[in-house]
Amino acid sequence: MECAGKGSGTRCLGPARKRCGRCGAVSYCSASHQISHWKVHREECERLEQQMKNLDLLNDFPFTFSQESTVQISEKQESRCSFLRKRGIHQVGLWVCECRCGASVTSFGNSRLESDTWNLSNILCPCRGITFASGLPAFCWKDYYEWRRIPLQSPVSLLLHWPLTVYHAIQLAGLGSLTSEISKLRIHYLGPEKELLQLAVFGELHALFPGVFVQIELIGPAVPHHRFVLPLVSAEIVLLVSLYCCYVKYPFINRLFLLLLQTVKSFPLGLIFAFVRDGDKIDLHSYAHCIEQDCDCRYKNENTSCSIGHASSAVTLQLHRGYYHDRFLDISKDSLPHLVIAPNAGVAAYASWLPTIELIKEINVPAVFSDYCEEACNLAACCINAVTNQPPRLPIQLNPFRQPMVVEDSPLHLPCYSNCFLFAM
């Protein structure tokens, strides 16, 4: 926990162990830092006090691992790494960026390491479509797991929060009934980062919007410039040759390829080592695969579950590098989106959001924003109000499909979760 008064003029005197006596949400290294920070903190103290009262609600999940992925990680009895390692999904495939030691979106020159595999048995993951007549699920993880017949010990919710938050945002925006009337659903998805390493999980939208062509435009500065596709079978050979060629003249490149080789070896057979770039179209023909080679999820769509530039499918992702306000005219030449969504937006933290907010107001399309905690949404709503002079179209509310694993080393004593709270303008 970092001192809330850090940077207030004097150096911190030690660990931040002195908590605010009123809200209990922030800590200080000393009484002097607490006093100097009061001018800032008093505006948020009452809000944080109310948010602390909802702590148990934030940690309330139906999974058998809920205590381990929330309280125990917050109290440092467990870590994200240890949680994933126990389940055999640490630093593999879709899970690679779910802990600190995994790859980031900007690793290896903005590359994307992609797998279409859950690295779980078919009992533990939704690798196939709905094979029974049933209505869509209610709005909570428990109902969704029952609907997809996934046991509550399965960790797939740690990744499914991306497509499920999109689904929930569509319902909140009042577009749920529209999906039964249209053949194509257009979504503009702003600021993707970690999602760029987990695109295969958006195949779950097949189950959520049957019979609807879902087109998602992913726009953000984290989308890479360049693309390179290499099957794992030949990846190690090419990397080893490159190591030999670059060893003497280019020691930096040598170190880079060593890192790449080490990373590639940690992934299961069948992985495609891919760099995607601005403008690439990714067709999700089916669901992310399970780890079992004889499962029919592989036979039905062998080698086609996630491909770049192939034939049209029910779920298509198009990548665009840059800010929304700069790319909007190129993306929306023919038609406006039905929904704009900005997961974990951080509106108050980045000035680049201001022209985007102005654009969204101008086109008058429902826009849903999420963030890691309620206070971040409060600050975001204030920023948006300052630009639009309008209150949120939908008030700040808890996302039932937030990621059920707490963010490590939160700046607050409140637990933070990916896609935790959301609101709409």
TrEMBL record:
The keyword Protein transport does not apply. One of its GO terms (molecular function) is zinc ion binding. Residues 1-45 form the MYND-type domain. It comes from the Eukaryota. InterPro entries: Mss51-like_C (IPR046824), Znf_MYND (IPR002893). Keywords: Metal-binding, Zinc, Zinc-finger. Pfam families: MSS51_C (PF20179), zf-MYND (PF01753). The keyword Metal-binding applies. This is MYND-type domain-containing protein.
